[in-house]
Amino acid sequence: MHAKLKIVTAMIIYGSIGTFIRNIDLFPGEIAFLRAAIGSMFLIGVSFFFKQQSSYKFIKKNILLLILSGTALGINWIFLFQAYEYTSIANATLSYYFAPLHVIVLASFILKEKLTPFRIGCVLAAMLGLSLIVMFDGDPLYYSYNHIPGIAYGLLASVFYASVILMNKFIKSLSGFATTLVQLMCAALVLLPYAALKDGLGFLSVSPTSIFLVLTVGIIHTGIAYLLFFSAIKDLKGQTIAVMSYIDPISAVIIAAIFLGESMSFIQITGGIFILGSTFLSEKFAPN
């Protein structure tokens, strides 16, 4: 499969996850644990089948960052899945796409990267877009959600995902595949006691439909999507990957509209354009 087609396929898969999560009869912590556990088991199987080798020496060298980033990844999923419960898929996804802007701000302190007026403008434009999204909507379906907490959860998820991105910059001598596999394993180990204490491991008596959906999220949305993504990025430029990543939120909105009947008002669409447009510009055209 061509590298660009792999990225497109992975992004569409990522974009559909909210629709699947919405129909799983489990708590967010349980879904996050099962996603990490199933996804890591799938990637372990893939690593043996394709003879992917990882240096335990380098894993040990980066173990603290891998544990911290894996924990942040799991918490990020919990907040994102919580956002899906409170607000529309579109609102949750668009608020989650604040992650690149969080990276810009945090990198100015952690990595000492210059926070230019252009990048500050991108952050302000995204904040304007978010304010448009939370404005009144005339769609009757709008009132079936509790948008403010949902968007807040989406923003919290984006903060933790931004922290994963930043921590990954300090992980040395490990491939993206190996890094993701260890992070998923760490996330599963951290999320298991959380799910057990908070949610009581309700997945042990879940319905067959939810079992199927959880397996889909673990195998397809995590294992296969990550495999497609990491097998493609080595053949593509960073800017190409950044641009193609916007297929994710666009497909999320379209899939939610088709299968869940969700819609966005003109004002909210404008807000979404501000958010996605500002993150796109900050990644592609921002001066170094």
Overall morphology: globular
What proportion of the residues is helical, as a percent range?
Answer: over 70%
Alpha-beta classification = mainly alpha
Low-confidence parts lasting 5 or more residues at pLDDT below 50?
Answer: none
Number of strands: 0
Number of helices: 14
Count of individual domains: 1
H and E string: HHHHHHHHHHHHHH
Distance between the termini: 34 Å
C-alpha Rg (nearest Å): 19 Å
Would you mind describing this structure in some detail?
This protein is mostly helical and 288 residues long. It has one domain (3-284). The chain contains 14 helices and no strands. The chain has helices spanning 3-15, 17-22, 28-49, 56-61, 63-86, 89-96, 99-110, 117-133, 147-168, 176-199, 208-232, 238-244, 247-260, 266-284. Helix 5 (63-86) runs antiparallel to helix 9 (147-168), helix 6 packs antiparallel against helix 13 and helix 7 crosses helix 9 (147-168). The longest helix is centred in the last third of the chain and has 25 residues, at 208-232. The protein starts with a helix and ends with a helix.
